[in-house]
Amino acid sequence: MSEEKAKIETLFPILGQGNLQGFSEEKTSRLSGIARLAAQGSEAGEGYQIEFRTLPVRSLLNHSVSKRGIWFAKSINPYRGCEFACRYCYARYTHEFLELRDPADFERKIFIKENARWLLEQELAKLKPGEEVALGTATDPYQPIERRARVTRGILEVFAKRRGLRLGIVTKSTLIERDIDVLTEIACRHDLVIHMTITTADAKLARILEPRAPRPDLRFQTVKRLREARLRTGVLCSPLLPGITDHLTAIEGVARRAKEADASFFSANPLFLKPCSKGTFLEFVKDHFPQLLASYERRYATDAFTSEAYQERLRELVRVVRQKYGLGRRTTEGLRPRDDPQGAEVSWQGELFTVEQERRGPVKIEGGKSAGPEEVPARSAGKRFSA
User: Fold this and answer.
1) CA distances (Å), 27 to each of 21, 109, 231, 282, 350, in order?
2) Distances (CA, A) of 256 to 209, 265, 325
3) Which of 126, 197, 220, 258 has the greatest number of CB atoms lying within 10 Å of its CB?
């Protein structure tokens, strides 16, 4: 472990062993568990309005459960927090375990997990062939700090020495192209599926929605390059935002470009708002789509999820688009708990692995129509963004 820690220390200008900003020694002494570890981590450099620190974790594999406590997969998140600052990100709650309650801390205080490679080598030895591991479910494993930290690269190199697992990767980053060599090796040894999240094809909308993530056109290029390397790679057009990106024109805009990039599959799910991200996202709506604010407040007043009727309309709309462009879909059988169809974690992880083609017949839906006219119009009447 000391060798890997030494590598981390040479990657960053270590500024000292001080307590995490905002935590006095007295407050730190009262913390426990991962919050205490986070507060005691070393400073690991700074970015623009971002503080990086090491996190001396004791385990890398998370045993993921749905909101009803049902196990369904294991996950790995190389970092805590994410620089991309997506306005809708549900993972902001993970910083609450570190006693960091300001939602903005999730994108301003990034924790780099120490000894990840060594820990994974020990933990993978305990997994059985065919077990599923999801990489990047509560942080982007290829956020900018990965260029220097190379934690994700080290994790992949460990997988490349094993075989027989089912590995799903989720990212918005073009940096994944750096690792095509090791991903190709992994694909020969495991069942590998890569998911590129592209919420919108509109660069202007993406810039305010996902401020620090790569432009959509660059992500489509990455999908194409991964496919040229014969890696199974699909597009997640998620989340679909009511009244903003949930209409046929917007969804087709992403699907068409996914087809041009030779994506293996195309999938989309509606927005869900956990309490940790609700304030941040509603502030985004207030600033950029003020005419939709009241409808969002009503829609998510008592539940993080949209209605089943709205979800069904979206599923049908996405199915029609997939069929039009001949794109595959992801299946959830075997990973999604049957009595928990809407688990927040499941909506990301429960669909990371199997891909199949559409089999149902054609259905006509009026072009440009929103998936669900429950509370919002098909297109925003405020700022306009092209699909």
Assistant:
1) 11, 18, 48, 32, 38
2) 21, 12, 7
3) 258
Amino acid at 176: I
Beta-strand relationship, 71-76 and 79-80: unpaired
Domains, the chain, in order of start with CATH, read 58-77+116-356 (3.80.30.30)
Confirm if 109 and 85 have CB atoms less than 8 A apart. no
Q: Which of 87, 68, 101, 74 is nearest to 271 (CA)?
A: 87
Q: Residue 257 and residue 234: Cα distance in Å, rounded? A: 12
Separation CA 14–CA 54 (nearest Å): 10
Is the pLDDT at 40 greater than 60? The verdict is no
User: Among 261, 297, 280, which residue's Cα sits nearest to residue 375?
Assistant: 297
Nearest residue to 386 (alpha-carbon basis) of 202, 206, 208, 200: 202
What pLDDT does residue 31 have?
44
Task: Supply the pTM of this predicted model.
Answer: 0.78
Instruction: For residue 213, give both structure tokens.
Output: 């993530």
Rounded to whole angstroms, the Cα distance separating 102 from 105 reads 5
Residue 102 pLDDT grade (very low, low, confident, very high; cuts 50, 70, 90)? confident
**Contact yes or no for 240/246 (Cβ under 8 A):** yes
Phi and psi torsions of 167, nearest 5°: -115, 125
